[in-house]
């Protein structure tokens, strides 16, 4: 598929994500005679690399002629960066997500391995079956196609500005989908690259993260932050663009409904684990029931359920108690 010119000097390169329900990622290339900028890359997978390099070739972009900006740490956005950057060019990522990438800076080892150790402990505490956790460690594309160690990343701060292709792209810290997620905002044109902060055809997954107390609270706050911007055009990390401010209102309403749903489940079924609670939540997926959910989607569902449980717990609506190796959740006023 050929790159599409969105507006002057900005092109979208669709990169397939094999076996992933997201289907593809939108990688954006901003042409500049001095140094161009590529925003997000796709998995470290041969099909992703082939499509991305073909798109760059059609645009006349060779490794070494562009820097890379990663909106966040997830492998579908960061996986290929180290392989295509070329020499003497930089890979930019937020300070917070850079720390997640560099948890285990050993050449040849998957970056962020400590993050996956934490995640396994989280999933055990959630009541997820151990055999499911072990299977996901073997087949999880976020691990299998993640960046390898050895690459150098340049951490950027909230408010940093990239002047490229005639645009002044300001970094806006938008935590939630990842702890250090960044959107890029050009005030003059009203253009924003939203990464996975605002998606239009699907709802961004908000999950629990290490060293983050309230992922959902962070996400809702940063939605309100970017809602104040006079955005005219939003370019998302996946699928199609849409009406920016309207979509933010829809996302906030979605999470309000989710919070009410989770509270109702805890109220009616005290003492459940996060895994059990996720099984009682409503999901838009082609499966007859929780037992038929694909294991990979159960992982996302449990993480999302946890984010909502933590939000309610931190605001005094529910409480959790340790029971052996798992947490169980109750209404705050239950004895």
Task: Throw out a few tags for this protein.
seven-stranded mixed beta sheet, alpha/beta, five-stranded mixed beta sheet, about 325 residues, globular
CA gyration radius, whole angstroms = 20 Å
Instruction: State the secondary-structure class.
Output: alpha/beta
Using DSSP, what is the number of strands? 14
User: Element order, helices and strands?
Assistant: EEEEHEHHEHHHHEEEEEHEHHHEE
Mean pLDDT, as a whole number?
A: 91
What topology, given as strand order, has the largest sheet? 1-2-3-4-5-6-7
How many separate helices?
Answer: 11
Distance between the termini: 60 Å
What are the segments in which pLDDT stays under 50 over at least 5 consecutive residues?
A: 104-111
Major sheet description: 7 strands, mixed
Measured as a percent range, the helix fraction is 25-40%
Classify the beta-strand content into a percent band: 15-25%
